[in-house]
Amino acid sequence: MQAEAFHLPPPNLGQRYTVTISDIAFGGDGVARVGDFVIFVPFVVLGEEVEVELTEVKKHFARAKLVRVVTPSPLRVEPKCRYFGGCGGCQYQHIDYAEQLRLKRKQVADLMQRLGGFDPQLVQPVKPCPQPYGYRNRLLIRSQWNKPERRLNIGFLRHDCGLVEDIEECAIAEPALNEQIREVRRNPPPKGGIKVSLRIQPEGWEVPPDSFFQNNFFLLPELVNTVRERVRDAGARFLVDAYCGVGFFALELAADVESFAGVEYDRMAIRAARQNARQRGVANGEFIAGDVGEALPGLLEKFDRARTVLILDPPRTGCRPAAIDVLRRAGPAQILHVSCHPATLARDLKALCAEGRYELVRLDALDMFPQTQHVECVADLRLGAEAAATAPAQTNLAGEPAVG
User: Fold this and answer.
1) Ranges 140-144, 292-296, 392-396, most confident
2) At what angle do helices 321-330 and 292-300 cross, to 10 degrees?
3) Does the domain spanning 104-128+213-389 belong to CATH 3.40.50.150?
4) Which of 38, 58, 88, 174 is deepest in the core (most CB within 10 A)?
5) pLDDT of 110-122, one tens digit each?
């Protein structure tokens, strides 16, 4: 049926509508409207006319599955993965890559404005990945017993439920990782419910099995360059690397600063960071194991805050409030917040910038996750002019002037 405005009662499960996609929300679903009622639809392109079937109905919105594309967008392309549309790993394989980049910039800008109150013009165009397929170097494979077919499914969660989509290969994974998938299938877990972590070890880095490392080697140099450019732009001479993992940012930027310190809760990652420093002959910094919120006050007191940059690269859930409070009180001149989750990033930035304490001067975005909803962001915060002007002289724990 053609979409028309309706009043109570709301539509029912299974009802079909022909709608026009007016937006693509963060997360990948298209947005359509029937009157004032919003319908979210996956695997569509902006401007398309599509037939949908409602699968979930709430008071003010519904979710639907795509039945057919009535009028396709010229930006619709053929997905390269045979599992696309079932597997929940990718959301955008059906969209031209240049349009994916434009779409992600708009989504980040909208989130920054809506959740953080920031000027969307601060968000720069998304930097493309030189290899939009075959880039991923880490995957989590799940196993699940398929009772109707009496076999073990090995793959990824479906986009529409908690079941596992059985897969033999992943189009966004590096070839060596696909070979690991085939090896798991040749030697499957003994039962369902077991997760298998697959990883290609980064060359020249020691990374424990469960420690974090960026999952796209192809765009990693551009990520480092982006962070380095922002550090140089601010003229920082000291670096504190919070959530430092195996020391990636601290060691890549060690030659750009006089000294640095890294902190990370994962003790195995800290041991690896120290080993990575020794292998590179880097001796102008230290790595400390501990809770970021608890360790930051002492670390920040070691350096002249007027010339200190702090890099935040927290988990997807963002920074803990305690860490945010420490940063606002300590006031390093520059904070670079690196995040793969724009929504939690906007929340953290809003807290840091409250009452003019910090100012967001630029946000760079990099497509570390082509074909998916995710995007890596680097937010450049500078201490507010009033906060910097009224800052008291800084001393270290011994009551002596800080380094610098």
Assistant:
1) 140-144
2) 10
3) yes
4) 174
5) 999 999 999 999 9
